[in-house]
């Protein structure tokens, strides 16, 4: 069972009826074809965020200061809304190398975690760095 099916498994036909015919058809198409598209993406080498987290964690075991792996894992954490972990990885990456791009990414994670003041500091520093 995929994520969309899990979200909607408790809904019955009467609840789908509230969506109207167009909404019901759209929901059916999403439930029917999204898993196929996702399977195809994975088969073609597109990793999911959880795959990326696992792969970059392996890289970081060998080299804990790998800038690219820290940034990549930080972004993967951000995409699955594990913002605390994303902020940790971005902070470690910034200790290795200052980067306006990583500061902006960390600002987004701070913003999502409702830490607006920290986000503003990172955006200001990113604007000053401009790389």
Describe the structure.
The protein is an all-alpha fold and 131 residues long. It has two domains: 3-43, no CATH class; 49-129, Tetratricopeptide repeat domain (Serine Threonine Protein Phosphatase 5, Tetratricopeptide repeat, Alpha Horseshoe). Helices cover 79% and strands 0% of the residues. The protein contains eight helices and no strands. The longest helix has 24 residues, at 20-43. The N and C termini lie far apart (44 Å). The relative contact order is 0.08. Residues 1-17 and 38-45 have low confidence and may be disordered.
Please work out how many helical segments DSSP would assign.
8
Which radius of gyration do the C-alpha atoms yield? 19 Å
Query: Which class of secondary structure composition applies to the elements?
Result: mainly alpha
Strand content: under 5%
Order of helices and strands: HHHHHHHH
Q: How many domains would you count in the coordinates?
A: 2
CATH topological fold name of the largest domain: Serine Threonine Protein Phosphatase 5, Tetratricopeptide repeat
